[in-house]
Specification:
rod-shaped; about 90% helix; ATP hydrolysis activity; proton-transporting ATPase activity, rotational mechanism; about 110 residues
Length: about 110
């Protein structure tokens, strides 16, 4: 009977050892599969990011062209206005200086009316 028990125990130990190997292989496979899934996800994320960045750059390029044209037009208008103001200043400079000197040297005090 003890030989039979011993053989039965040995069979159980062998089965336990085999089960441990199977569990270990399953764990290794699961770990490997998780790593692969993570790597695949990273690749998909990078591809998506690159796609969206490309779309954004295209959108930006299309819309900044209009902004640049408007900005150049506004700069031209501002430069024209500045030129007009400077020209008016040059034309009226002597009159302004005369009026200022007149006001300084010949003050006309007026009473304050409330």
């Amino acid at each position: 009977m003890s030989a039979q028990n011993s053989a039965g125990i040995q069979t159980l130990l062998d089965a336990e050892r085999d089960a441990s190997k199977i569990v270990q292989k399953a764990r290794e496979y699961r770990t490997k599969r998780v790593r692969e899934a993570r790597d695949e996800a990273k690749k998909e994320i990078e591809a998506y990011r690159a796609k969206k960045e490309g779309e954004y750059k295209k959108f930006e390029a299309e819309h900044t062209q209009g902004n640049k044209a408007a900005e150049e037009e506004a700069n031209k208008e501002a430069d024209a206005q500045i030129a007009k103001i400077r020209e008016a200043g040059k034309n009226n400079q002597s009159k302004v200086v005369e009026d200022l000197l007149e006001a300084v040297f010949n003050p006309r005090p007026e009473p304050i009316t409330a």
